[in-house]
Amino acid sequence: xxxxxxxxxxxxxxxxxxxxxxxxxxxxNFPFTTIEPNVGVVSVxxxxxxxxxxxxxxxxxxxxxxxxxxxxxxxxxxSQGEGxxxxxxxxxxxxxxxxxxxxxxxxxxxIHVHGGVDPDNDISTINTELLLADLDLATKALERANKxxxxxxxxxxxxxxxxxxxxxxxxxxxxRTKLELAVxxxxxxxxxxxxxxxxxxxxxxSADISAIKAHAEAEGAGVISINVKAENEIVELPESDQAEYxxxxxxxxxxxxxxxxxxxLLGLITYLTAGPDESRAWTxxxxxxxxxxxxxxxxxxxxxxxxxxVYAFEDLKKYGSEKAIRDAGRLxxxxxxxxxxxxxxxxxxxxx
Length: 352
What we know:
- GO terms for molecular function: ATP binding; ATP hydrolysis activity; GTP binding; metal ion binding; ribosomal large subunit binding.
- This is Ribosome-binding ATPase YchF.
- Belongs to the TRAFAC class OBG-HflX-like GTPase superfamily. OBG GTPase family. YchF/OLA1 subfamily.
- Keywords: ATP-binding, Magnesium, Metal-binding, Nucleotide-binding.
- Its cofactor is Mg(2+).
- Helix 1 runs parallel beside helix 8 (about 230-235) and helix 4 runs antiparallel to helix 5.
- Strands 2-4-1-5-6-7 form a six-stranded mixed sheet, with helices on both faces. A three-stranded mixed sheet has the order 3-9-8, with helices on both faces.
- The protein is of the alpha/beta class.
- It has 14 helices and twelve strands.
- It has two domains: about 1-45 and about 65-265, P-loop containing nucleotide triphosphate hydrolases (Rossmann fold, 3-Layer(aba) Sandwich); about 285-350, Roll (Ubiquitin-like (UB roll)), CATH 3.10.20.30.
């Protein structure tokens, strides 16, 4: 999973990136500190994986990972190349989901490109630029499709779909709210079709995120609040002290919150494999069948799929071993039509 972190300059994008990845990206009190995107890969925290490693005495633990991309700040006119607009748009087009950082905190020592804190206006500025970029892309794509117009149903279908998309963009409607059309036009990489999570960058005295919630509800997006400044201070502490400090401040882990919301937005779940060699977490799309899940390990597993030996992680915690699970009748043999569930521990049997 690759997540792009975007927002206006000086809203805390790079600070959030640093808190999530501990990458030490530059974060300063002036626009465009980030020019080329900063990239950080982090492990997805999963207590289940730690338990499996101990239970099986695994030689190696391999968690799922997320790539975060800190993208240059966006300004009004980016869709026409203002600021670092063209770079911004090219970098964001490659990610799976967007985290849009919105400034809610008020700090006279940190300048705001619009002169004052206004979450509603900031969101409108960024979303307008994304819509304009998509409108330009759709218009050009429709022109090309019309030149290639024929009796080919595929081309005709795209002409109709692009026409609908242009109508939505002209009416400030992001494509993520039109799921069927977004899937139909997936190959074009429209920015407003990508899952979106708003991160309200708050301080202790700034809890009003009603404007952000209203946008999220209207746009089919998610929203969470993170005190980015406090988060950066916490992640600098020894790991053994972080949980206690969070408890004192009443703060959840920013990384955990972003990952949880990201998985929900993208419709992802985790299944697990375990043994003496390694315990590993695998990320798949919710609703995936057993052969598709096997294919995440190797294409041969999917091609030669025979069956899956499955039990729930919670049963392992309850019974203590695979043998006890088997004796209790909780180990299942599942076929090609089995839909994998989050937390399944699976051994795939295959023949190539």
